[in-house]
């Protein structure tokens, strides 16, 4: 029996879907059927299709009352909406079906594992987060009668039941199921099971419980194991935040990639470190080794996942041909500019799915190769030498895949600045500019039609290779993703500029020699 709340959401989605014009959505980036989305959930391959579930509030363009929206795709680029998969309709998830993941069980059913949120004592009560399960056929899902399958009773001493979420599940080579879940140490300065907003001075009588320590309030990733996907045991604290990488760690993912173990997560409240971690709600990639006996992950490398503005909550899956693909929310909690969202009736997009690899100890990302199938109208210019402003015939558009290689002119002095501007007309432009003396690539969408003083610029330290900087710039109607040096770094941002601003132009202070290959997409 499908619950009323879910039936209502499904009917609402159906009614609204047709009312949102094609042109007011991104062309090939996923956007919600209607209303708000944040994290991608349950990104997986099941019965011949990629499935993407998503944190969804169908009824408004702001975060509220989390449902799981649902879509499928054959190529990771064209998504077809399916009816919402879950609504917050049980006592243990009535305050939201938070993020989670999906996989195929041995018996062919699809299992969803997610965080159920319940507020003890009403709307203003303490938030309890538990891990829950639903099972289905790729269309309809039934919540497990023994939910929750993991609750506060499994938490190691000192961890909070308020921040225990976002299970990522996989099946190991041992045939067992495993999952990682984000957790957080209690703030013992106040002793309560919730973050004390007043650093212990809140006066609501929290009991002291042990000595406060530097680890209080910090994230940890917990590892659980299961023989069948339904009954789960705590296995270990896989890795802990020592205070260097923000506080709570959301949306963990853990996998083997090119011989190394990788932990991805989205830490809240990050401090910048050099040119890393400039988004307060950041993304973190730890690369290292896994001790199978102790069930502990140790890392030797850390890096930001995406160096742009709008990026959070990554999730990966494996394709049938063995590629590790990552998708993420192409937004950030700090930059949710609602300008125009009400009229558009949707808010939030997902990034392009990206193929991951490890090269020279770093995480590399490239757009899924399926995108190459949708390139058309090739326009190519080789070794264009120029100084000052430049426009090139055939180089314009808002749904574009463009590769640039930039170098100084042989024998000439190094140029001072190179810029490529797009989503441009008399009023608007978004720019990528590069200063070789500083090795800094800057993304600036100040003139993109935003009427709010959100962050609109981000700088990233980049590395020329053999005197060249390579950029692959992917524009959809409402976004830009810049893949730098074949995916060594990526900068992502939403660009909500009016679609009529289609210009692309170049600028050089000093002599630049540039190769340009530009395709229309779709
Ligand atoms: C991350 C997050 C998750 C949570 C979800 C709620 O963006 O805060 O930790 O499950 O969003 O919508």
Show the helix and strand layout.
Blueprint: H1 4-17, E1 35-46, E2 49-57, E3 67-73, E4 80-86, E5 97-104, E6 110-120, E7 126-136, E8 141-143, E9 159-171, E10 177-185, E11 219-226, E12 233-240, E13 249-257, E14 260-267, E15 284-291, E16 296-304, E17 312-318, E18 324-329, H2 341-344, E19 346-347, E20 354-359, E21 362-367, E22 375-390, E23 400-408, E24 417-424, E25 429-435, E26 440-447, E27 457-461, E28 468-476, E29 479-484, E30 489-494, E31 503-521
Parallel strand pairs: 1-19
Antiparallel strand pairs: 1-2, 2-3, 3-4, 5-6, 6-7, 7-8, 9-10, 10-11, 11-12, 13-14, 14-15, 15-16, 17-18, 18-20, 20-21, 22-31, 23-28, 23-31, 24-25, 24-31, 25-26, 26-27, 28-29, 29-30
Describe the structure.
- The chain has 522 residues and is mainly β.
- Helix content is 3%, strand content 50%.
- The strands form 6 sheets. Strands 22, 23, 24, 25, 26, 27, 28, 29, 30 and 31 form a 10-stranded antiparallel sheet that branches. The chain has a 5-stranded mixed sheet with strand order 4-3-2-1-19. Strands 5-6-7-8 form a 4-stranded antiparallel sheet, with no helix packed on it.
- It is globular and about 70 Å long.
- The two termini are 41 Å apart.
- Mean pLDDT is 95; it is low at 192-197 and 200-208.
- The residue ranges in which pLDDT falls below 50 over 5 or more consecutive positions are 192-197, 200-208
- The chain-level mean pLDDT equals 95
Helical run tally: 2
Give the terminus-to-terminus CA distance.
Answer: 41 Å
Radius of gyration: 23 Å
- Distinct small molecules: beta-D-fructofuranose
Helix content: under 10%
Structural class determined from secondary elements: mainly beta
Shape field: globular
Total number of β-strand segments?
31
The largest pleated sheet is described as:
10 strands, antiparallel
Percent of residues in beta strands: over 45%
């Amino acid at each position: 029996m499908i619950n009323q709340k879910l039936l209502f959401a499904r009917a609402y989605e159906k009614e609204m879907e047709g009312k949102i014009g094609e042109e007011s959505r991104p062309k090939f980036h996923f956007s919600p059927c209607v209303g708000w989305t944040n994290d991608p959930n349950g990104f997986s391959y099941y019965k011949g299709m990629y499935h993407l579930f998503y944190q969804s509030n169908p009824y408004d363009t702001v975060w509220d009352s989390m449902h799981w929206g649902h879509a499928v795709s054959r190529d990771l680029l064209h998504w077809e909406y399916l009816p919402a998969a879950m609504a917050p309709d049980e006592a243990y998830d009535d305050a939201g079906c938070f993020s989670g993941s999906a996989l195929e069980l041995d018996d062919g059913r699809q299992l969803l594992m997610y965080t159920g949120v319940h507020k003890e004592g009403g709307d203003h009560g303490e938030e309890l987060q538990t891990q829950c399960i639903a099972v289905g056929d790729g269309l309809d899902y039934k919540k497990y009668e023994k939910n929750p399958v993991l609750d506060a009773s499994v938490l190691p001493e000192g961890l909070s039941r308020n921040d225990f979420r976002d299970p990522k599940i996989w099946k190991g080579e041992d045939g067992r199921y495993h999952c990682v879940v984000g957790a957080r140490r209690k703030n013992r300065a106040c002793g309560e099971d919730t973050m004390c907003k007043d650093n212990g001075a809140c006066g609501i009588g929290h009991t002291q419980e042990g000595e406060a320590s530097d680890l209080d309030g910090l994230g940890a990733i917990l590892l659980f194991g299961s023989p069948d996907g339904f009954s789960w045991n705590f296995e270990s604290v896989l890795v802990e935040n020592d205070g260097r990488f923000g506080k709570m760690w959301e949306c963990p993912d853990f996998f083997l990639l090119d011989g190394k173990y990788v932990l991805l997560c989205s830490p809240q409240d990050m401090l910048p470190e050099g040119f890393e971690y400039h988004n307060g709600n950041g993304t973190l990639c730890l690369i290292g080794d896994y001790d199978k006996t102790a069930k502990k992950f140790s890392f030797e490398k850390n890096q930001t996942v995406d160096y742009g503005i709008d990026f959070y909550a990554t999730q990966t899956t494996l394709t049938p041909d063995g590629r590790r693909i990552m998708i993420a929310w192409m937004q950030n909690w700090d930059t949710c500019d609602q300008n125009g969202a009400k009229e558009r009736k949707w808010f939030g997009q997902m990034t392009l799915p990206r193929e991951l690899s490890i090269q020279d100890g770093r995480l590399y990302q490239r757009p899924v190769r399926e995108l190459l199938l949708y390139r058309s109208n090739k326009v190519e210019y080789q070794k264009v030498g120029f100084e000052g402003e430049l426009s090139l015939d055939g180089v314009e558009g808002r749904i574009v895949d463009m590769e640039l290689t930039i170098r100084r002119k042989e024998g000439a002095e190094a140029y001072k600045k190179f810029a490529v501007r797009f989503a441009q007309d008399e009023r608007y432009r978004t720019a990528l500019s590069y200063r070789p003396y500083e090795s800094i690539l800057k993304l600036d969408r100040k003139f993109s039609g935003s009427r709010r003083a959100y962050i609109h610029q981000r700088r990233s330290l980049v590395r020329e290779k053999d005197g060249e900087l390579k950029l692959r710039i992917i524009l959809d109607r409402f976004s830009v993703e810049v893949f730098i040096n074949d995916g060594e770094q990526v900068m992502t941002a939403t660009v909500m500029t009016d679609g009529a601003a289609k210009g692309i132009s170049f600028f050089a202070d000093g002599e630049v020699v540039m190769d340009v290959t530009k395709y229309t997409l779709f």
